[in-house]
Amino acid sequence: MVLHNFTPTRAKGQRFVTKTPVLIVDDDLELSSMLVRLLEAEGWSVRSAANGAQAEQMLSLELPTVILLDVMLPDASGMDLCRRWRSAYPSVGLLMLTARGDPIDRVLGLELGADDYLAKPFEKRELVARLRALIRRQRQSNQMVPTEWTFGPMVIDLFRREVRLGGDVLELTGIEFKLLVELARTPGQVLSRQQLSDAVQSTAYRPLDRTVDVQVGRLRRRLARVTPGCEWIDTVRGEGYAFVPRASNPSPLDGR
Splitting the chain (256 residues) into consecutive groups of 10 residues, what average pLDDT does each group show? Predict the structure, then answer.
């Protein structure tokens, strides 16, 4: 195991500067060592764990900004860890690494809460670019005020990454949550399928328009089962979808 502490550093004549903490979870020690050198050269503070147990111990001591998580580990499934860590550490970015580049695996990882997905072997500069983008998005997300959006009986908790309807938590996949957040960000504004696809994942892999339609349809059905008297998402033919919270009864829901 290669271990590097997350400690502030100071350039000569300047104040202390805290480096962005990154955790690598991969049992390929040669790859991990290369990634540590690569990411430290970018100015980040890097730790690495060779298995899930080591990673869990590190996370209990200090949370990184981003985790690079291998799908196949000797003592755990990366998919299971992804799901658990997404729930336990909602503010942490998750980029999954895998030797399997099948689109189904990518979709599964994103459904379980991963923010991005990269297949091995990968280009070093692409990994760095993906991490920079993910770190930027995490910082923007963590600085968002307020951390909760309320639309009638619906509360979208951005920090906990959960949706509550009537006080009960609605079970959503990672993709469904991202879709709802992107739609609710600008109520009444029509978003194209491409915009929704981009919001769900930043990888080069893009789902077909029909896939976006299916995902929005699933989200609609989940919402309808809990709030049968409410409509949340409109389809605008030829353009896309809009978040328009309203009740089927005379008094509309107020989005605030």
Answer: 39 52 95 95 94 92 91 92 86 86 72 86 93 85 69 86 88 88 89 82 52 88 87 90 69 36
Angular region, 187: left φ>0, alpha ψ -120 to 50, beta rest: beta
Distance in angstroms (rounded) separating the CA atoms of residues 70 and 73: 7
Report the candidate in 32, 36, 124, 26 with the shortest Cα–Cα distance to residue 71. 26
Query: Beta strands of 78-147 (E only): which ranges?
Result: 93-98, 116-119
What is the CATH T-level fold of the domain 148-247, as seen in this structure?
Answer: Arc Repressor Mutant, subunit A (1.10.10)
Going 150 to 153 to 154 to 157, the CA torsion angle's sign is positive
Superfamily covering domain 9-142: Response regulator (3.40.50.2300)
Q: Report the predicted TM-score, pTM, of the whole model to 2 decimal places.
A: 0.58
Backbone φ and ψ of 17, nearest 5°? -120, 125
Among all chains, which residue has been given the structure tokens 């503010």? 91
